[in-house]
Structures are given as C-alpha cells and as structure tokens.
Write a structure and sequence with these properties.
five-stranded antiparallel beta sheet, about 25% helix, 3 helices, alpha+beta, 5 strands, Thiol Ester Dehydrase, Chain A
Length: about 140
C-alpha cells in the first residue's frame, strides 16, 4: 500500500468514505476484544428497557471504524498522531456506518495535516452523525 505524502494533500481534500454494515457478530467480537461486556451492546431486552429498539454498537466501535478509514487513506498507521472525537449518537444493528473526513489545515513547517472527521448513518432519510465535531492529526513524510 502506498503511503500518502504531505505534498499530495491539500486543504479541502476528502477522506474516501469507508462503509461498514454494523452486524451483531461484529459488535460481539468488539465486546470480546475490548472487554466491554455492557448488556446495552449484547442484550436486546436490556437495551429495550432503557429506551432503545435493540442493542447498539459501542461508541468505540464507531471510533475504531473511523481510525480504520484514516489509516487506510494515509497508508501508514504510525502517521496518525492524534484523534479527538465527540460521541453524539448511537448506531443500531444493520445500519451502514460511514466514516469520513476533510483536510482543514496543513502546516508546512511541521508537515502535519489536520482533518475534521465524523461518522454518519442514514436513518429514515436523515443524516445522523454518531461522531461529530471531531478531528485527527497526521504527521506526513
């Protein structure tokens, strides 16, 4: 895989959107890997008892998908130096989670690039942003 170079990036460039249909087995695998066994992410009856239609994905599951989109784009996971996210919504099973971002700043002296990043789902024709008001920084060669 090619590694993205600083000179190849411009303010306004968009991260190629990365889609993932959220499946129960993926959320379970994430719960097992992370150790987060909260019943909100595994037990439909529990999730319904607190007002959801069924289990929801972990917020960190959504963030991991966003990080995956960033590292695929840049080509070298080591070039992602920071990410700050705000969790603003839930992701339900069988929704298509889309990770996106846009370059908002470049610093020629440090070769750092800052992106505004988000995740989104289409819910009944409306764009919902489970992660928004967030940013990532890359150190590019």
């Amino acid at each position: 895989m090619a590694v993205l170079r600083f000179d190849e990036v411009n303010v306004g460039d968009r991260l190629p959107p990365l889609e993932k249909v959220v499946r129960r087995e993926d959320v379970k695998a994430y719960a097992d890997a992370s150790g987060d066994q909260n019943p909100l992410h595994q037990d439909d009856n529990f999730a319904r008892s607190v007002g959801f239609p069924g289990i929801i994905a972990h917020g960190m599951f959504s963030m991991a998908h966003l990080v995956n989109a960033l590292t695929r784009w840049v080509g070298d996971p080591g070039e992602l130096t920071s990410i700050k996210v705000q969790f603003r919504g839930v992701v339900f099973m069988d929704e298509t989670l889309v990770a996106g971002g846009e370059v908002v700043a470049k610093d020629d002296s440090t070769r750092r690039v800052r992106l505004s990043v988000w995740t989104e789902v289409d819910r009944a024709g409306q764009r919902v942003l489970p992660i928004k008001n967030s940013e990532a920084e890359l150190q590019l060669g």
